[in-house]
Amino acid sequence: MSWHRSYRERVLGPDYDFAARHLRHHFLDALTAHVAVVARLPHEGADDAAGRVRLLARALVELHDVASPPHEQEVPDLYFAIQGELRRRVGDAVELLRVGLSRNDLDMTVYKMRARELLLETGTAVHALRRAVNLQAATHLETVLIAQTHHQPGQPTTVAHYLGAVGDMLARDSERLTHAYARLNRSPLGAAALAGSSHDIDRELSAALLGFDAPVANTYDAVASADWQFDVVAASQCLALDASRLVCDLLAWASYGWYRLGDGLVQGSSIMPQKRNPVALEHARTRFSRVLGAAGMVVYSSHNIPFADLNDFGPDVQGALQMQHLQLAGGLDLLTACLEDGAFDADKLATAAAATDTTATELADVLVRDTGMSFPAAHEVVGRLVTDMQRRGRQFTSLTPDDIVAAGGPRMPVGAVTAAVDPASFVARRRGLGMPAAPVMAEQLAAQRERIEAEAAALEEERERLDAVRAALRAVPA
């Protein structure tokens, strides 16, 4: 058939090139599994059906070592190109491939197989990032960091406490990826166009051969649903959003000199000799933004369309899924490098902390505990102290008992006042569950490390399982 130039150049050619580059081996594996199912069907009236099946299976395996031919005008897609290659090798035996098979169920199976690969790669990248976050946190159990609320200095905490929170957030992102993987790992193969086949197609067998947990239960659902794609893009989108918030803070801290990237992650200025521009973080940020854009391409392609097998969420969004994955992988790799080859300046952070009035809450709490004041009364006294110290140009951490008396508060021992306004003491006193005191955080970070390694081991086990599945499919039949 002679396709119109527009259709060939805008649709068939690009789709073929994408499939040949990213999906060919998955097509061959899926077809191999289907042939194994067809081999179990009765072939009445067919001469040497078993021999033809073996011939076809062997040819499919051998095609893994052969590059896809360039797109030809009369070939609509990679599936038909593979059929053409097989026909040249095995003749009429290729016709067994068409028994109980449609491009509908084949394509959706291949797309899911590709998505599994992408999720496993992303999972591995997240584990690397989580390790880097955890290591930085463990290095700074006692490094005071002034945390902000509403873009204003809030309270002292530690770098470890901040990064521990980031680590927990990223752990939930790992969970989302795992859940998305579990939901998509159901095989559409054997659903044919949508209603299945009157041939006795063993869908459980093809699912097992391809490493799926089970077939999609409803054959219409197998070819018409796209929610598994939304799972993938949503999990990736959430991960990108979470990672971008860490990038935002690292960029801010780099501008203050609190965080310094390694020389291989910064660029100088063509005119300003002093500049160390944190470009790796900037590039990570833009890649995470593109993840969100690619997610929108997938979602909007599936908005207000019928519940049926359609190109909208089939071949037309595979490029968007690939684009999202590439941008996410790039952002995660850059951010991990920035954490592995970057350092917090504890001295500058301590100096910055001492220049704030962020221990005001602790002073109010001490007034309540040590003098019996009500918290509203203590809050009022400390509020006056903050205003007075700012007016006089004095640091809040230089408070004396006389200052408290002058603001209407009771006289307190010098040591009690000094400890109350010291940022490091503020942190050390917070020893409850999830709080920033060093012993608490050390225990939490150790638990994080155990979880990371356990999840990484489970992911590697799944990767090895799929490798074994592929190896079995690609073994040359006897």
- The CATH superfamily of the largest domain appears as Fumarase/aspartase (Central domain)
Tell me the CATH architecture of the largest domain: Up-down Bundle
Radius of gyration in whole Å, from Cα? Answer: 31 Å
Strand order of the largest sheet: 1-2
Nearest-integer average pLDDT: 94
Structural class: mainly alpha
Short description:
Helices cover 64% and strands 5% of the residues. It contains 18 helices and six strands.
Give short descriptive properties of this protein.
478 residues, Fumarase C, Chain A, domain 2, Ribonucleotide Reductase Protein R1, domain 1, 3 domains, two-stranded antiparallel ribbon, two-stranded parallel sheet, 18 helices, 6 strands
What's the structural blueprint in terms of helices and strands?
Elements: H1 5-22, H2 24-38, H3 49-62, H4 78-90, H5 103-139, E1 144-149, E2 152-158, H6 159-184, E3 186-187, H7 203-209, E4 214-215, H8 219-224, H9 227-256, E5 259-261, H10 279-301, H11 318-340, E6 342-344, H12 346-354, H13 360-371, H14 375-392, H15 401-406, H16 414-421, H17 423-428, H18 438-473
Parallel strand pairs: 3-4
Antiparallel strand pairs: 1-2, 5-6
Could you please describe the fold and organization of this structure?
This protein has 478 residues and is mainly alpha-helical. The protein is 64% helix and 5% strand. It has three domains: 5-99, no CATH class; 104-138 and 167-202 and 214-345, Up-down Bundle (Fumarase C, Chain A, domain 2); 360-421, Ribonucleotide Reductase Protein R1, domain 1 (Orthogonal Bundle), CATH 1.10.40. The protein is built from 18 helices and six strands. It has a two-stranded antiparallel ribbon. Strand 3 (186-187), helix 7 and strand 4 (214-215) form a beta-alpha-beta unit. Helix 5 (103-139) packs parallel to helix 11. The longest helix is centred in the first third of the chain and has 37 residues, at 103-139. The radius of gyration is 31 Å and the shape is elongated.
